[in-house]
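TL;DR need structure tokens for one chain.
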Amino acid sequence: MLKPGARLTESAIAGQFGISRAPARRALAELEGIGLVVKSAGRGYTVRAPVKGASAARAAAPKEEDIRLISRSSWERIYAEVEDEIVGRISFASWRVNEAELARYYHVSRTVARDVVARLQQRGIVRKDERSRWYAPALTAEHVGELYELRSILEPVALTKAAPNLPPDFLAGMRAHLEDAIAQAEAIEGPTLDRLEEEMHVTLLQYCGNRTLMQAITLPQSLLIAHHFLYRWTPRLFNTEPFLPEHMKILQHLEAGDIHGAATALEHHLKVSAGRALARVDVIRREFHAESLPYLERLG
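>> reply
TL;DR here they are.
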């Protein structure tokens, strides 16, 4: 279905399907093994031209969902990888994002590169400096502290508004997910932590019915995007993940109809989470090295 020469990378596939890089790496290796892709001169793999006499199964009509996947707009096809590359580096430093180099690196137009950067801004990952140049701020103690402080102010307000609007089975679903995670707390994986954070801090809060408030929450919630990377590489930094009982306490207040108690518990949870986020950042900073990319310039 993909045109010969199309480029595939581990990070883009992992982001597309919501998986870690390990299964994405194995999938690409298997595709290489059966001759559908070859390792490219740069990073990733490229799609090979179809071989004559390919099996009927492989040549079968594509499914509707596959067509939607392949026909996504150009900026969406590269966005997941760009986001992952930037988020994986802000533990080390701040980075300037060069639109022209981004377009050149992915062989796309400046318009597509601009759309990618606009989405990064919308998700709170990049911002403009005093000279209107794009940059991704580092996860310093000061920056993380500011974001968590803002979250601890805004999210309890959103929870108070959201609680009366929750569907009847929403809290039961949250409890099932939390109880399952707590039961396997010592072997929990990053994607599971990620989903639990998303359920508490995004899905639940969206029932607040105040779009302006949710837009205000978007900037400090850029930390949740950073957690995609942090949880992937440091899922067991603690013997058992500390936020699990904190989420359960919030849930118990909601189940009891104690909205004020739930908001107070959420505020406490966010205030104590900043230090844990910084602990994960420190691990990444000590143990990982990021290769250079032409569209990212390290600042400071």
